[in-house]
Task: structure prediction
Amino acid sequence: MPKHTFLTVPVGRNVGLTSVSIGLVRALDRLGVDVGFFKALGQPHPAEEFDRSSAYLEATTTLTPPEPIPNATVRKAMSKDEIDDLMEEVVSRYETLPAHHDVIIVEGLVHTHDLPQATRLNAALARALNAEVVLVTVPEAPTVDAIASQLDDTLRQLPDHFRRIKPAVLLNHVPAPELAAALETTADSPSLLTALQEHLAGSSGDYEVIGVVPDHPDLAAPRVCDVVDLLNGTIVLPGDMARRRIKKISLCARTVPNMLQALRSGNLIVTPSDRSDIILAAAHAATRSIQLAGLVLTSEMDPDPRVMRFCQDAFELDGGLPIIRVPDSSFEIARRLYDLNPELPVQDVERIGQVMDAIARSTDANWLRHRCATHVAKRLSPPAFRHRISKTARTRLKRIVLPEGEETRTVQAAVRCAERGIARCVLIGDPQQILEVARVNNLQLPPLIEILDPEPERDRFLAPLLELRKGKNLTETAAREALRDNVVFATMMLAMDEVDGLVSGAVHSTADTIRPALQLIRTAPDAKAVSSVFFMCLPDQVLVYGDCAVNPDPDAETLADIAIQSAQSAKSFGIDPIVAMISYSTLGSGAGSDVEKVRQATEIARQRAPELIIDGPLQYDAATIAEVAATKAPDSKVAGRANVFIFPDLNTGNTTYKAVQRSANVISMGPMLQGLRKPVNDLSRGATVDDILYTIALTAVQAQ
Result:
């Protein structure tokens, strides 16, 4: 995966987001950085079905960016508030980028009438892709004070996540002469940038200005061939229309002496067809090497053929003067030309390259080098985590038994699992009742879902159950009664290798789910205890909480085992574990038996797993917040960076996980049990359909 992902985010309208995005690709490429590009969410021009940014790069580089998610899909997801599912698809497409890229430029979205939620989506992209933000804006006024005030106001209004890593700012369309005068420097890009950075040095603690791009009118000059369709005209003489550019439009209806100033190279002359004097003047200009952009002849009348023949040789000089004939009035044609879409045509490779070069020249190369060489801690975002476990589950389809098969949320989750190809779910229960639940909830049960009626099957597990519990004096009568419980029945299916994993708890207590597993599945050979973890999908990253479901008051040995197990679980699901042993005291600032237990457990874990990054006792704020860590535990390798949290007892862990889950409205996947020979996972009785869905996915991955 790339070392850095930069997300370009527009602040304001008409800031040139696409130009800046592809220009940053050129700037990084010139530094020898292996750079890729990704337009995650489609936002095509209304008249086009393709993404311009990707098309520009395909026309000028060897990059072939993946297709963005169509704009219609984006709007549909937003209307249904399915932004999490949308971000999962973003991560999926992001992972198709070549693995050799060191840096990826991701282009954000522009706020439009059709997409008013652009800011929210950009924030979601930044979180999902763990991206560093480059803000793109246009200065409201060309003075240092005005720019500083504008940027301060901008930062205050942005989502908090944009400020997690100090954002970069690139100023586009800057009126260079005015700003240069204010800064008392020259108007070229490097001087402007250096001078502005020096003037803002004392007040720009929350951002870094990395680019000042002067306004280049010539870069906005379209070719004549790009406006022919807009004018709905007829080409009288094509001339050099693929190369000549329109730098200015001159509507000429006066006599020749009064329009001589319009005869300049790059001017597009718009005049009525019967103005032979102006046609002759244009021909004379061509003989003097004045390369007009073109000549647009308007009105219903045709130009005098004798005049056109007389001027023919002059019109063919220097590649030829493009001449276009249109039936509309000069005023109407001028209006259309002034309303010309300023976006770069994909076919204009020369202009695309010039724009990219201008952006690259105006960007701070030293900043890019330094940032690309700086290690940025990677956070596994919830969409990336969900995509990872779903992708892994799909590689080897596992059979997961759901003993609460008649429960509505369970049926809904099983259907979604089948639709995504995550697992082959086995619903235990009365088939008629299960089908009725599906009917009432408008659910179509896919073929991947199995329904198993336990009634005719219970007796076949009688002998195996008695054998597994023969040392516990279990009677046949008691065994028959135990098998009446669908959780016990499903656990026997797992014990006999008929399924690969079990998920329960939507209507059963944790004890009802775990007790049969402890009795029939038992602990793994290397485990000292069975414990659990929750994967807490916070907005910015996934954290691991343990143990929040099984051990009421573990001793130091068991707590150390929970820490090691939880770190292994985190690593197996793509999280590089940094383990904080949580207490009400930080590194000996308080005393008491509970603090001492956590300290001992930390030492035991270090001895048993010396490669583990672990520290404790740590208070939760010291473990998570860098500013607090700098004060309370400045020498700790864990404080301020932790992503795995081990709580001292069940009371603390369960209370904390539920408070975070409900207050922050986050998905909590789990509890996922650790230490069993086969995967059995519990649900909270308040679990949502998403909670159940991803717990099934976790179980399927464990089964692999």
